[in-house]
Amino acid sequence: MNSDVIIECCGLSHCFGEVKALESVDLAVRRGEIHALIGPNGAGKSTAVACMAGLLSPSGGQVRILNRPMNDANAIELKRRIGTMPEDLALFDQLYAHELLTLQAGLFGLDRHTTELRVRELLSGLELADTGRRRLRDFSTGMRKKVAFAAAIIHNPTVIFLDEPFESIDPATVAMMRNLLSKLATGGRGIIITSHDLASVNTVCHSASLLVSGSVAWRGEVGGDRTFLWGGREYASLETLFLEIAGTRSVHWSWLDERVATGQQWR
Ligand SMILES: Nc1ncnc2c1ncn2[C@@H]1O[C@H](COP(=O)(O)OP(=O)(O)OP(=O)(O)O)[C@@H](O)[C@H]1O
Ligand SMILES: [Mg+2]
Predict the structure, then answer these.
(1) DSSP letter string over 134-190?
(2) From CA 124, how far away is CA 118, in angstroms rounded?
(3) What is the mean pLDDT of the chain?
């Protein structure tokens, strides 16, 4: 095994009752690499992240983090080195942002000085320093997402899982987060994100897996002006590749298309 690989799954599978959410997914992410899971809604991205981060016990297959199996015997020890932003943010709504981050830092054993410094820097960098006396329950959707992002990285984890980190985030903050993720990766961490923001994926990630119906339909390097190969054809962008593999559908809207075709106006 390559010792640079710090996130690895082999034959990862998960069923929710009758629903096969993941089927035999293999994946390896090296130190310094940011890998994206992309794919249509319901493809299994969040399930994969939850299984890899130890939030969900997979029905089959293995997950190895930092070259060690993620199982009950060493899950706690490994989780200390993992930072996760799950799909369901589940924040403690009665707290203020600085309280939640301080609590998170305490759970991971950070000392008081380090905690204060990181809470201050993260809140300021994410434009959350002036949230005054607003509790998390009164935050906007994007503000909550930013707090969850800060909570995922405050303990300086070696392995980071971020489920839809750019969703609901304004473009300036997305740019700042992309920059921060690149710095974290350069420092030798392994990062997996899920995202529907293919432009961000192509900007910040080194590689991606396209999941369709729980299986990997395409995997390859991303970034820059590169083109993408699939089925013997070359695609100019991640978006055209996605549309080809995940299918572009032509839908007939009975209540709309006739009016458009005949130029009828709404009354
Ligand atoms: N708790 C659950 N109980 C039952 N089925 C579930 C549960 N969570 C997910 N699923 C099913 O598993 C499949 C994969 O879901 P998942 O949330 O992993 O998709 P996703 O790729 O993250 O989608 P999205 O892009 O919408 O976030 C879907 O068919 C979904 O309905
Ligand atoms: Mg999801």
Answers:
(1) --GGGS-HHHHHHHHHHHHHTT--SEEEEESTTTT--HHHHHHHHHHHHHHHHTT-E
(2) 10
(3) 93
Q: Please say if the pLDDT value at position 265 is more than 80.
A: no
pLDDT digits (tens, 9 = 90+) for 51-88: 999 999 999 999 999 999 988 777 888 889 999 999 88
The CATH number of the domain covering residues in 5-81+157-262:
3.40.50.300
Please tell me the distance between residue 88's alpha carbon and the centre of ligand 2 in angstroms. Answer: 9
Q: Whose CA is nearest to atom 16 of ligand 1?
A: 44
**Which residue CA neighbors atom 3 of ligand 1 most closely?**
16
How close is the Cα of 27 to the center of ligand 2, in Å?
18
Burial state string for 102-121 with b = 16 or more CB within 10 A and e = fewer than 16: bebbeeeebeeeebeebbee
In degrees and rounded to multiples of 5, residue 29 shows phi and psi of -120, 130
Using one digit for the tens of pLDDT, what is the confidence trace for 168-215? 999 999 999 999 999 999 989 999 999 999 999 999 999 999 999 999
Is the separation of the CB atoms in 154 and 107 below 8 Å?
A: no
CA distance 78 to 121: 26
**pTM of the complete model:** 0.94
Q: Which residues line ligand 1 (CB under 6 A)?
A: 16, 19, 21, 39, 41-47
Q: Cα–Cα distance between 153 and 105 in angstroms, integer?
A: 10
Domain boundaries, the chain: 5-81+157-262
Cα(147) to centroid(ligand 1), Å: 24
